[in-house]
Q: What sequence folds into this?
């Protein structure tokens, strides 16, 4: 009985969670679940959570307070609600969550989503709280249903404004997780603990999934992984394939017009991948390459395993392969022991490289990570001050980058209708949001747009005849 049960999923954190939320909805669909937009209407509420910083993890508990009230209210109307916590908080805190928030019926880690229907059934029939945070032997991707169902999620994302699913009738852009986990163990980071060891999906599986996304109308795919450029999945010939080889294969899939990938590590920017930016026309001129800190002493304490000079060298190579590439990065300020002089090196590196956009964060001590126990923690006021300074510089760079686009004509892939009547919204090759007045018939298509004005976070333009 499709549609007889209703599920509400709220997504926090990175794009991989957005992708996982879609896969969870698809896994539940054969069991009669349809996605709804508000928890008040839902028989099942799933919070897909993020543990990367303290604030992200705490959001879950405030959200659970709200869900508890809704569950109680529904009960007075004779309706039962199941509540599940998925994602990285589920993996990191496990049974602690059910102790702190008894409203929760099920805690499910990112490696167990293929078991979700079974776990929900057991939680209900056995009337007890279940926790599944194992790293099972079976591969969850191989055990999730194939992606042909064409189901849409209501994935909303606090950290990243871009959801793979828009409110328009066409899904033009999609995420595709090709790699999960991380073996790098940066001393500040929870990901190796919440997502486990690095794992790459085989090429044939990814080609099939890309083809089914194309059948849904998708023409742009962003390949995802915590360490996406360390990808080394089984190739079509049985040997290991690199990200560059995977891109070459996916670029040949009929209907795919644009490819992107995120997030990369400077140490894994191999020559063949850099070369792909020169030769693969479908590979968009945009690269998210976090450097975290500009001082070598801090980089070493973070266990990033490269120097600031190495980062400069990688950027130089990429820019010589693709001179117009737009660079993005992640920066942490106030890592334990960071001095004012060392922070200045971060500012200097930002000034020297020049970013089209960036994410920057105050260091947040995460339980269980090595950096959390360093005695020399930086006071919060100092972190706030440094964050404000680096963000002012980054905002200036983003504004300059956008201002340089005025007068140019970009191919824009339109993804959704805008807030104003007659407005449509898409993305430039450099991932900027582009607003224009235009026929909704353009949604799902790449159309030339002449940029007429720019502001800090988006561009506005006029459609030009192709
Ligand atoms: N794999 C990516 C990062 C994934 S986490 C990489 O290696 O670059 C996304 C970003 O969150 C990181 O780049 C980092 O800037 C930030 N981050 C991770 N842990 C953090 C912490 N404990 N405090 C503050 N920011 C953190
Ligand atoms: Fe975290 Fe470092 Fe792995 Fe990125 S490379 S996910 S920052 S441990
Ligand atoms: Fe957050 Fe987990 Fe992604 S900690 S950033 S949701 S991998």
A:
């Amino acid at each position: 009985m499709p549609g007889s049960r209703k599920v509400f999923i709220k997504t926090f954190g990175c794009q991989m969670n957005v992708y996982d939320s879609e896969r969870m909805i698809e896994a539940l669909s054969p069991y009669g679940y349809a996605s709804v937009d508000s928890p008040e209407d839902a028989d099942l509420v799933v919070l897909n959570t993020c543990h990367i910083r303290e604030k992200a993890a705490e959001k879950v508990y405030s959200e659970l307070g709200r869900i508890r009230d809704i569950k109680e209210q529904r009960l007075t109307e004779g309706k039962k609600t199941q509540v599940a916590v998925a994602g990285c908080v589920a993996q990191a805190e496990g049974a602690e969550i059910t102790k702190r928030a008894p409203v929760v019926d099920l805690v499910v880690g990112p490696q167990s989503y293929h078991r979700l229907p079974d776990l929900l059934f057991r939680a209900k029939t056995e009337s007890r709280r279940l926790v599944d945070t194992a790293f099972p032997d079976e591969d969850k991707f191989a055990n999730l249903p194939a992606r042909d169902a064409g189901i849409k999620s209501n994935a909303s994302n606090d950290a990243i404004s871009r959801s793979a699913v828009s409110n328009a009738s066409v899904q033009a852009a999609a995420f595709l997780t090709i790699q999960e986990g991380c073996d790098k163990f940066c001393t500040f980071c929870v990901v190796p603990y919440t997502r486990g060891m690095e794992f790459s999906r085989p090429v044939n599986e990814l080609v099939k999934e890309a083809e089914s996304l194309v059948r849904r109308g998708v023409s742009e795919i962003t390949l995802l992984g915590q360490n996406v450029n360390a990808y080394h999945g089984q190739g079509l010939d049985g040997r290991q394939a690199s990200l560059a080889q995977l891109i070459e294969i996916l670029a040949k899939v009929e209907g795919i017009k644009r490819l992107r990938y995120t997030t990369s590590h400077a140490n894994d920017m191999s020559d063949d991948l850099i070369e792909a930016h020169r030769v693969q026309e479908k590979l968009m001129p945009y690269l998210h390459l976090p450097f975290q800190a500009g001082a070598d002493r801090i980089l070493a304490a973070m266990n990033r395993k490269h120097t600031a000079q190495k980062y400069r060298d990688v950027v130089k190579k990429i820019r010589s392969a693709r001179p117009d590439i737009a660079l993005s990065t992640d920066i942490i300020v106030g890592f334990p022991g960071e001095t004012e002089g060392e922070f200045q090196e971060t500012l200097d590196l930002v000034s020297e490289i020049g970013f089209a956009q960036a994410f920057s964060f105050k260091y947040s001590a995460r339980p269980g990570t090595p950096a959390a126990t360093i005695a020399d923690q930086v006071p919060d006021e100092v972190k706030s001050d440094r964050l404000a300074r680096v963000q002012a510089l980054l905002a200036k760079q983003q504004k300059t980058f956008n201002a340089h686009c005025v007068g140019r004509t970009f191919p824009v892939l339109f993804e959704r209708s805008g807030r104003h009547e007659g407005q449509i919204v898409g993305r430039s090759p450099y991932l900027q949001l582009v607003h224009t007045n235009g026929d909704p018939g353009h949604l799902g298509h790449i159309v030339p747009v002449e940029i007429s004005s720019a502001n800090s976070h988006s561009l506005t333009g006029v459609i030009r005849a192709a």
The chain has three domains: 5-141, 160-403, 409-463. The CA atoms of residues 207 and 250 lie 6 Å apart. Residues 182, 184-186, 189, 191-192, 226-227, 265 surround iron/sulfur cluster (ligand 2) (CB under 6 Å).
